[in-house]
Amino acid sequence: MHDMSDRKVRIAAVGLGNRTCKYLSYVSEHRDMAEVVALVDPDASRMHGLRAGFSLSEDRCFSSLDDLVASGLELDACIIGTPDIFHHELTLQALHNGWHVLLEKPMGQTESQCRDIVQASIETGKIVTVCYVLRYHPYFNKLKQLSEDPKMGRILSVRHIERVGRDRTAHTFVRGPWNMKEMNTTVFFTKCCHDVDFVLWLTGDDVDSVKSYMGERIFTEGNAPEQAAKRCIDCEIERKCPYSAVDLYLRRKDWIKGFTCQPGETQEEMLTRMLKDSRYGRCVYDCPENDVIDRQSMILELKSGIRAEIIMECGTDEKDRMTVIECENATISGDESYIDITYRNPSENPERHDFLWTRKQDFHAGADLIIVKEFIDSIREGHLRTRTPAQTSLSSHILCFQAEN
Ligand SMILES: NC(=O)c1ccc[n+]([C@@H]2O[C@H](COP(=O)([O-])OP(=O)(O)OC[C@H]3O[C@@H](n4cnc5c(N)ncnc54)[C@H](O)[C@@H]3O)[C@@H](O)[C@H]2O)c1
Fold first, then answer.
1. How far apart are CA 384 and CA 388, in angstroms?
2. Would you tell me which of 217, 237, 265, 325 could form a disulfide with 261, CB atoms 3.0–4.6 Å apart?
């Protein structure tokens, strides 16, 4: 890679949704290092604020990556934050145009797609940074640092639980577009590929064998309470149901960012219409196309003898990850709020590390910004500084695909 520390990294943002906007915040604050030179999204309404924020003219806004390529505009890198199904195609296109890529996870939807990206990154000599935020997050870094402390002794086992909260489960994986395996990948892959990566990073070990267990699905017709109606808005037991769409959208006004009012419609009217007519108003036990597994666990036997279990549980109250690391001399356990250490030696006092502060911080407690910083620094310095290049991130993707079989 060339050293280009004397000039700004020219970036195109592709897919201007929630994630890309987080990454662009870093660019916005570091205009001496990088500049946004183009925006790409088929939905023009996503451009407005960003266009003004980065002072871009109309001819720097494109509805597809094809159009950007055809324009001949020169740039160094792009940020790809589109829905998963486009990651593979757009990344290959960007790499073959000679651009580095900051790519949202997952890289691709099949093993061969992920391998293609790694191969193309090697062949073109361009970086692909996969946005596996846990490796950049202060809480997860502390877990790693503690587990490496010689005082703990070696790691014996890891138990890591991804608790997918009720609201996310109902909205995204049961009623929403992520509820069909054929259209997407599995919930485990979507939610846990970076948990698998975290465990591999934590243990620093290679995998000897992988086993996966899929639990019985919860959100099926057979599990519906007797009095349940097809739609929550017509349901007499809706107030007692933890998955009530009326409660989620109408009373709590949660997860409604993607719903839009029609001309002249109030928000209440729009939400009532969504409850009556859209996929989001349905009883969670009556979404017949939903075929995704909502409980899965993976057991990894690592070469050094460590056993690691990664569990995904949908529909839970809590929505944080829990990790228990059993070491020779201590147990380290964390729930994203605290890390507790108890020592086998009774004369050693237990320790607690407070991470409640990270909850008050946006950008995954700053992790999103560090990802972009390392990506830009790597390009400017011509030296790979990113922690999550595609080459490293490949193993966790492959393990998740293996877990599906
Ligand atoms: N790293 C993480 O912690 C994390 C968290 C959430 C989501 N994600 C991943 O981030 C990605 C984006 O998620 P999001 O919540 O920001 O989505 P979003 O729906 O908010 O934004 C996606 C944007 O992509 C645009 N788009 C669709 N097709 C496109 C195309 N062909 N070319 C250009 N733009 C296109 C859409 O119009 C939309 O503006 C997904 O892959 C998701 O899995 C990662």
1. 10
2. 265
Domain coverage including residue 250 = 221-281
At which of 281, 309, 333 does a domain end?
A: 281
Q: What pLDDT was estimated at residue 96?
A: 97
Residue 97 shares a structural domain with residue 197: no
The CB of 51 under 6 Å from ligand 1? The reply is no
3-state secondary structure of 49: helix
Query: For the residues of 75-106, what is the DSSP string, one character each?
Result: -SEEEE-S-GGGHHHHHHHHHHTT-EEEEPSP
15, 107: one domain? yes
Q: Are 193 and 386 in contact (CB under 8 A)?
A: no
Q: What is the CATH number of the domain that holds 89?
A: 3.40.50.720
For 109-143, letters b (16+ CB in 10 Å) and e give beeebbbbbbebbeebebbbbbbbbbbbbebbebb
Q: Would residue 4 count as lying in a domain?
A: no
Judge if 108 and 248 occupy the same domain.
no
Q: Decide which of 268 and 294 is more confident.
A: 268
* Stretch (H or E) spanning 199: helix 187-203
Place of tokens 């599990």: 223
Q: Is the domain of 23 the same as that of 94?
A: yes
Question: What whole-number distance in Å separates Cα of residue 353 and Cα of residue 333?
Answer: 10
pLDDT tens for each residue of 336-387: 999 999 999 999 999 999 999 998 888 999 999 999 999 999 999 988 889 9
Ligand 1 touching residue 42 (CB < 6 A): yes
Q: Which of 14, 39, 41 to mutate to test the pocket of ligand 1 (most atoms within 8 A of CB)?
A: 41
Tell me if 177 CB under 6 Å of ligand 1.
Answer: no
DSSP β-ladder status, 77-80 and 9-14? parallel
Tell me whether residue 1 is in a domain.
no
